[in-house]
Design brief:
alpha+beta, 5 strands, 30% helix, 31% strand, globular
């Protein structure tokens, strides 16, 4: 899973002695089932960058789906049980552009 190495690198590049004490990222499971990722953008170069929301796939709970947006200074992405890498890839494609 190349996305895991890439998100580790992005996270490490944000750690400046201050950022990591107030911000970070969370990967959680959903009960419908699926994944939910929240990545703080405050005090990063991404904070002011525009992001086009991504909505792909079936309805939530139907298996293969991805929903990603930026709101309140956070990247918020969710997806089905098999879509964790895809949600990370959406973030990383935007962050590394």
């Amino acid at each position: 899973m190349q996305e895991l190495a890439r998100i580790q690198s992005w996270y490490a590049s944000q750690c400046d002695g201050d950022w990591e004490h107030s911000y970070g990222l969370r990967i959680e499971t959903l009960d419908n089932p699926g994944w939910h990722i929240t990545i703080d953008l405050h005090d990063t170069e991404l904070a002011a960058r525009s992001f086009e929301p991504v909505v792909r796939g079936a309805e939530i709970g139907e298996g293969d789906w991805v929903h990603c947006k930026v709101e309140s200074g956070q990247f918020v992405g969710s997806g089905g049980t098999g879509n964790l890498a895809e949600v990370l890839a959406v973030f990383l494609s935007w962050a590394e552009a």
